[in-house]
Amino acid sequence: MASFAELASSFLKEEYEDSPVMASSLGLTAYAERLDALSAASFERRRASDLEWLRRFRAAPDDGLSPAERIDRDFLVAMLRGREILHPHAMWKRQPATYLGPGLQGVFTLFLHRLRPERELADAARARLEQVPASIDHGIANLDPRMTPRVYVERAIGQAKAAARYARELVPAEVTDRAARERLASAGASAATAFERFGAHLEGMRDTATGDYAVGEEMYTALLREKELLPYDARALRERGREQYDRLAADLRRLSREISGSEDWVALLVRLNQQHAPDPEGMRQEYEEWTERARDFLRRTGLVTLPAQERCLVEPSPHFQRPVLAVASYDRPPAFSDSLVGHFFVPFPPDGTGEEEVQKRLEGNCSAGIPTTAVHEAYPGHHWHLVMAKSNPSAVRRTFSTSYFSEGWALYAERAMREQGFFEDPRHELYQVEATIFRAARIVVDTSLHMREMSFDEAVRFMMEKANLTEPNAKAEVGRYCSWPTQASAYLTGMLEILDIRTRFLTRRGRNDVAALREFHDAITSSGALPTALAERAIAG
After folding, report:
1. Nearest by Cα to 415 from 246, 228, 275, 248
2. Domain assignment present for 266
3. What is the DSSP string of 459-508?
4. What gap in Å lies between CA 475 and CA 483, rounded to an integer?
5. Backbone dihedral region of 334: left (phi > 0), alpha (psi from -120 to 50 degrees) or beta?
6. Which of 2, 211, 335, 408 is most buried, by the most CB atoms less than 10 A from its CB?
7. Do residues 277 and 344 both lie within one domain?
8. Residue 229 is assigned to a structural domain of this protein
9. Sheet containing strand 329-331, strands side by side
10. In angstroms, rounded to a whole number, what is the distance separating the alpha carbons of residues 406 and 403?
11. Longest Cα–Cα distance in the chain
12. Looking at residue 27, what is its pLDDT?
């Protein structure tokens, strides 16, 4: 009988073969020339394989496993069970982004991390671009208008247009060698034509796409309990979101009164949103400045351990992400590489955006709100966490993660920095609490949408009224929730779970000074990005 280590190694090898784009983003350069297989037969084969692996990992007994291996086994079972729960939803038949992502991200990450010489990168990128037309063909064949929600189609149309420009104009500029650039330009032109063809196909689907994005209460609850290992159902989670919203609203009223003399925090935020950088580059510079301030604060206070050689670069968002992502994002150092350099992407507007929309983008990234986002994305949020996670020896934990820990941690990082006095200006503190109430509103909307108790338009109005979003941003947010069930609930839910774990950890230690906090922070982030119940087990010893 194979050992657990052998089973896990075989499973991971199969995962990398099935998802070479993921594999290369992890730093496994041997997979850099291939794109994911996206035929209908490939999806059905992977489902059957997932079921078999789920059976095998469930059968792995505790006897003979180390505590770390038991956690890895339980993590794999939870992850595979999550896939099986979602299988009836058949995202490959309803989500157009399935066929855009690999070709875009697969080329972008090659040049972002540059783990190979430029000539080899160019050859790998060219090989992937040459496979894009086949991916698009599969998308056109697989998507079923009766299953595809219109909101999915509309989001993907903008991304397809941005993808075409990226492949045709921007990819060749990544290399200096003239001959390599010409080969990339040829492959990029072919890929761009395919992306444009897909966009035209999606335009034709606007009126025939009648699918339902909602997964339903039963599936949502199953994902919470069996994938995320949480003890509550969809309705209980929604109630938790409402309770947190009311509590945070009271905090915002108090802070607003201190700052402006009025409890109308929404009106105060509207005024403060007008104070922003003059242009996107100025916005990027503000983000960079506050990222460094947060790092310096950690160095001075000792709240966490800062690994040597880590860096977080603050850069404009990739062109192909700009039509669908109006918020900051982060790309980690490849897990199986020596690099400790992460990339914090500032949400630049899409090329050709009118001045009015540019101003709205800047208002959504106002000066008073930037410190919170810098903490969330960089220090000690995503960047610091994922640098620490690289130290874990488990290949399973370097490969897989859950948003309920990673996003929960990033929101917890905001909370911890607030507790330690980083947000000295009450306006900065106001925006940190506002960022948290936004996550509470997300829980209410995400659960309600997928339980079919709130329509898309009702969800947009809710986010505009309760989360202080403009209509375009609210529509983009709700579109994201429709596409990714349970993810929007991960932030605040995960944070609250981590706070509870911290309380129990410090109680066992019998102290809560900075040294004890640092021990907690270092230990739990080094465990990876596990479901929170497993993360607590990982640090219990």
Report:
1. 248
2. yes
3. HHHHHHHHS---HHHHHHHHHHHHHSTTTTTHHHHHHHHHHHHHHHHHHH
4. 12
5. beta
6. 408
7. yes
8. no
9. 311-316, 341-346, 329-331
10. 5
11. 71
12. 96
* Number of domains the chain contains: 2
Please list the rounded mean pLDDT of every run of 10 residues in the chain (541 residues).
91 97 96 96 97 97 94 98 96 96 92 92 96 98 97 93 92 92 96 97 96 97 98 97 98 97 95 95 97 98 97 91 80 95 93 86 93 98 98 97 98 98 97 97 98 97 89 87 96 98 96 96 98 97 65
Task: Tell whether 316 is covered by a domain.
Answer: yes
H/E run at residue 248? helix 234-260
For residue 292, give the nearest of 484, 422, 416 by alpha carbon. 422
The domain containing residue 37 runs over which residues? 4-205
Residues 6+ apart with CB under 8 A from 402: 79, 227, 228, 490, 529, 530, 531
DSSP-H helix ranges across 280-338: 280-301
Distances (CA, A) of 71 to 8, 220, 225, 297: 12, 24, 17, 33
Residue 468 pLDDT? 82
Indicate if 20 and 65 belong to the same structural domain: yes
The encoded tokens of residue 83 equal 């896939």
Do 334 and 444 fall into the same domain? Answer: yes
